């Protein structure tokens, strides 16, 4: 557990392994402090704020691409200016190390990249190379 979670990749969970006990979940949580332990340490969640709907949608699309690449899919709820990501390994109905890996990867690209901001010009998307920093909620 000494290796940083953000440098790891997910391995598929085939079930048959126990969910992390609260104590171990708290150890992993220390590497993802912006995420909240929920449901008696059976899932983790983080909410994010954005300037508008398009930035929230772009972020959700980026999280979806990350989830596909890692083979681990969060529950995502989003709307105008906000998104909430919730992680739990469904096959074991609790937390696994991979939940924290995806959480730290999501937090890493939140802090090192930005969501494309699409302007409008004559009803068409324009300024596709302009960038808007994501604004994590507290």
How would you describe this structure in keywords?
138 residues, Gyrase A, domain 2, 5-stranded antiparallel sheet, two-stranded antiparallel sheet, 3 helices, globular
Description:
- By secondary structure, the chain is of the alpha+beta class.
- It has a single domain (20-115, 130-136), classed as Gyrase A, domain 2, CATH 3.30.1360.20.
- Helix content is 30%, strand content 24%.
- The protein has 3 helices and 9 strands; from the N terminus they run αββαββαβββββ.
- Residues 115-133 have low confidence and may be disordered.
Describe, in short, the structure shown.
The chain is an alpha+beta fold and about 140 residues long. The protein is built from three helices and nine strands, in the order αββαββαβββββ.
List the helices and strands and how they pair.
Elements: H1 22-29, E1 36-38, E2 43-49, H2 53-70, E3 75-79, E4 82-87, H3 97-112, E5 115-116, E6 119-121, E7 124-126, E8 131-132, E9 135-136
Antiparallel strand pairs: 1-2, 2-4, 2-9, 3-4, 5-8, 6-7
């Amino acid at each position: 557990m000494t290796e940083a979670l953000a440098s790891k990749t997910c391995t598929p969970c085939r079930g048959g392994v126990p969910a992390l006990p609260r104590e171990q979940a708290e150890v992993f949580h220390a590497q993802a402090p912006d995420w909240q332990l929920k449901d008696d340490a059976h899932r983790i969640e983080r909410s994010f704020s954005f300037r508008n709907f398009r930035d929230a949608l772009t972020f959700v699309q980026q999280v979806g691409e990350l989830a596909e690449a890692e083979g681990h899919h969060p529950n995502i709820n989003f709307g105008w200016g906000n998104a909430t990501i919730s992680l739990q390994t469904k096959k074991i109905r609790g937390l696994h190390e991979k939940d924290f890996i995806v959480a730290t990867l999501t937090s890493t690209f939140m802090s090192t990249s930005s969501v494309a901001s699409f302007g409008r010009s004559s009803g068409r998307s324009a300024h596709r190379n302009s960038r808007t920093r994501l604004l994590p909620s507290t």
